[in-house]
Amino acid sequence: VNNAHSGPEGERLVDRVGPATAKGLAGLGLHTVADLLWHIPRRYYERGEVTSFEDLREGEDVTVVATVRSATSRRMQRRRGTITTVVVTDGHAELSLTFFSQPWRTKQLLPGRRVILSGTVQRYRGRLQLSHPECELLDVDEDGHDKAEARSGPVAVYPASAALPSVAVSKAVDVVLDDVSLLVDPIPAEVSATRGLLPKAAALRTLHRPTDRSTVEPALERLRFEEAFLLQAELLRRRAEASAAAATARDPRSSGLLAAFDAVMPWELTEGQRRVGEEIDADLSRRTPMQRLLQGDVGSGKTVVALRAMLRVVDAGGQAALLAPTEVLASQHARSIRDLLGPLGEAGMIGGDSNGTRVCLLTGSLGAAERRTRLLEIASGEAGIVVGTHALLYGAVTFADLGLVVVDEQHRFGVEQRSALSREQASGRRPHVLVMTATPIPRTVAMTVFGDLDVSVLEEVPPGRGEIVTHVVPAAEKPHYVRRMWERVAEEVAAGRRAYVVCPRIGQDGGSPEAGTSDAVPGNPDPDSPGEDPAAGMASVVDVYDELRTGPLQGLRLAVMHGALDPGAKDEAMRAFARGDVDVLVSTTVVEVGVDVPDATVMTILDADRFGVSQLHQLRGRVGRGRDPGVCFLVTDAPPGSEARQRLDAVAATRDGFALARLDLQQRREGDVLGATQSGRRNSLRVLSALRDEDVISEARVAAAAIVETDPTLSDHPQLREALEALAQAQSADYLEKT
Ligand code: ADP
Ligand code: MG
Q1: For residues 635 and 642, is the Cβ–Cβ distance under 8 A?
Q2: Which run of H or E residues covers position 383?
Q3: pLDDT greater at residue 320 or residue 522
Q4: What atom in ligand 1 is closest to the CA of residue 408?
Q5: Mean predicted confidence (pLDDT) in 161-180
Q6: Measuring from each residue's beta carbon to the nearest atom of ligand 1, which residues come in under 6 Å?
């Protein structure tokens, strides 16, 4: 697969360990020599240490260390062949092993020998046993010679599977460990020397075959550093490459669209909006592409910042594209930008400003004729501002002169998608890029995922915002809370305000949770696993709409909103709700991101425990956007004290997006944190944790920056360059697999 690479790490395991073992290793996600070498032991057994049998449970795949007590063979009565029964002990309890037609086992498993065993625990005639376990003698080799010399240290136990137990993994590791000195060490000698790092080969050998437990941690530390260093070097190299690319400087015009907009804008910019605006202005004046991340909590006013940047680019004769993750959000953006611009956004139309531009919405659901018209507007340059969904990324969208790409809610897109839009234009230049996210990310995660971007932060929300109070409503324990909650919703409506009711699924034929819009929900059953429909029993938009209409919210004007509606119906529901023709919008999480209706003050989330922390925070951000205080109800059947309840209590206790993001990350597996939607860099971290290893990541970044600054093409660091190329290759292979 990986011929570019001179070391053995890219070699396929099938070529080394035989097809059966290779298949088992592939089942563990291990395909190359490097994969296996970085497959770190789960734990180590000391010499003389045995595993207590007390915790063994029927049906579990286990790896245990035990001492042989007896071994006997006899002929089977009804079948041909022998049955060998071996009894092993942990010093207290006994476990029996059975082998069919392997009489030689009695000579291998002599009483007193210590053995490491992997297999599935079964129960036979009331006793626990392992049938045909994988065995490896710990103290002697197969010929009975003492191997104390060779294996004097702790014994590694690997993450394994029923198909390939730890002992078999260990044997495969032995095979590839022979090549370890041939591996490319990508860390430049000067970095290793100043940090006193172990050589890579020594670190790997130590991890798999430590002579002493105390040597494990420094070895692991060395690998963590390598992983962090490679990641940072790659991100910094990309950044250096981008800043070597050409872009068109988009200089301001004193009496253009932006000036006209600033004159009619309904409010003062906040201090943060002004500051970030200046940072963006400085970038846009350069002849290298802007690569900026704008991070601002829910409701901090990112849209206006983006709009002002877009107007400046239009003033300079270019076009701007705004990419949104959902159709609901794209049409809302197009609408609110048109509203904000007024006549300035209606160039060429009656009543439009001759100085103005035109806003064009491009989504996947347009009819063919309409799509053609809009594509023409974009290609001719008539449309200065193009708002769209993924439809903007793929297919033949040609711009007259694309000067700026804004990606809203970046966490819903992958890195690959981001680069699809920012690629070189026909002019040979790249557009400036601004990506925005409301998902606050801890610093080191940001460094890991967005390390190729400059970062701007909008800290404060615009003044005059009402408070949001959040209540957890335990529906099962306190049904009267639920009654009171609906009364409260009705009261808000009576006072002229509006309410969202969010359900985890659509219901009836609409299907289970909104596809593609919901984040991984901790504690939710794996949707791919067979068995019960995980969505069964959860509140659905269709049912809740009926119940409320004829029950507690009788007489109010209700509407439904979900992904299965056709785009026209979605848009109409959203407009009616924004106008005030609908009081209560019963919806799925399609309203999660970006939706902005300042008069909405109540958010009721049913089965709230089904949503992740960040998702709840985003949903709650839909209310309290105007002057009136907001209220958010998190309705749940989860019992008090349960993990789900604690999560909801945490959301209720704070509106600090950063604190909640941290909590969310702690509850997800690392793979989800850096998962496809977050970064497109799934599974690439093997020993590093973006959460735990902040120090390592910061230090690696400093070390990598020093290298990339003086040698941006890495021509003086061929080993490092080679490793990064291999990494990029593996990642794009990964990406192709996923699409
Ligand atoms: P987000 O950062 O979550 O995308 P939005 O851009 O949707 O936030 O802005 C949230 C709300 O704040 C919108 O209703 C917007 O019109 C309003 N807003 C933005 N900037 C200001 C400002 N400087 N003063 C008052 N209101 C503002
Ligand atoms: Mg927004």
Answers
A1: no
A2: strand 383-388
A3: 320
A4: 4
A5: 86
A6: 267-270, 273, 296, 298-304, 438, 462, 594, 596, 598, 625
